[in-house]
Write a structure and sequence with these properties.
It is a single chain. The chain is an alpha/beta fold. 18% of the residues lie in helices and 27% in strands. The strands form three sheets. Strands 3-6-9-12-15-18-21-24-26-27 form a ten-stranded mixed β-sheet. It has a nine-stranded parallel β-sheet with strand order 1-4-7-10-13-16-19-22-25, with no helix packed on it. α2 runs antiparallel to α3 and α3 runs antiparallel to α4. The longest helix has 16 residues.
Length: 256
């Protein structure tokens, strides 16, 4: 299951059933769990842990040193969960001691070609990164988000669950859960209605989120006045409360 031209460090821990293609390099302090398939010409540098049933395509660079001038070789990790698809030329870097010394990837994500995940990013589950989507350091992306092609995200930005970014979106503020944003610089465009329909959200939930968007983005008044109006919806719909809770934790401000 391991091609004869692959180079495997003797300290690497490779489970039974892992496939490693021609000319791939698996470095020291790398752990790969069962069912994972690594294509040709892939480089994995440790300390990195890769879970079960992932597929990593050719020319991906996994677990390399952070692109951070403050990094001076201190020990840090990359942890990848299960069933992720990591396509051609994707780059994922380890964390730094400035944060938690870990970059973490969840389960069931799709990283299309040339996606970049920088140091200290925290990636949830069931997320789609279209081609060339790029995250700077310390970015958080919550479950079921979709990042359009060439989306660029500023460091320390948070993207909420089920949000959607349009093609070539440039983000320097947080994106509220369920919202759609697009443009350079990004502006809120509505909610991710099509995505919510596909995920079989109830019509009344979608209507409540649409009303939340209108109040927060389109209506007049102070933010406190808007939050008072939205709180009535939040009392009935947990998804709206999720939006408010996300706003409360926002440190960079959110995309309006």
């Amino acid at each position: 299951m391991i091609h004869e031209t692959a180079i495997i460090d003797e300290s690497a821990v490779i489970a039974n059933g892992v496939q490693i293609g021609p000319y791939s390099i698996i470095g020291a302090d790398v752990e790969i769990e069962a069912g994972t398939v690594i294509g040709p010409h892939v480089v994995v540098k440790g300390p990195t842990k890769i879970g079960k049933d992932n597929r990593i395509f050719q020319f991906a660079s996994i677990g390399e040193d952070p692109q951070d001038l403050k990094f001076h070789g201190e020990k840090s990790r990359l942890v990848i969960g299960d069933r992720n698809s990591i396509r051609e030329c994707v780059t994922m870097h380890r964390g730094t001691e400035e944060d938690r010394s870990i970059t973490q990837i969840g389960n069931d994500n799709l990283f299309m070609a040339y996606v970049h995940i920088a140091h200290d990013c925290m990636i949830g589950n069931n997320i789609i990164f279209a081609n060339n989507a790029t995250l700077a350091g310390h970015v958080v992306v919550e479950d079921f988000a979709i990042l359009g092609g060439f989306t660029a995200v500023h460091q320390f930005t948070r993207l909420g669950a089920y949000c959607f970014t349009g093609f070539a979106t440039a983000l320097d503020r947080d994106v509220l859960p369920y919202f759609t944003v697009a443009g350079n610089r990004a502006r809120a465009r509505g909610i991710n209605k099509e995505g919510l329909v596909r995920k079989q959200f109830k019509p009344e939930t979608i209507r409540a989120l649409q009303e939340t968007y209108k109040i927060l983005v389109k209506s007049k008044g102070t933010l406190m006045e808007k939050l008072e109006r939205v709180s009535e919806l939040a009392a009935v719909h947990p998804e709206v409360k999720q939006v408010i809770d996300f706003m409360d934790k926002s440190e960079r401000g959110w995309t309006r």
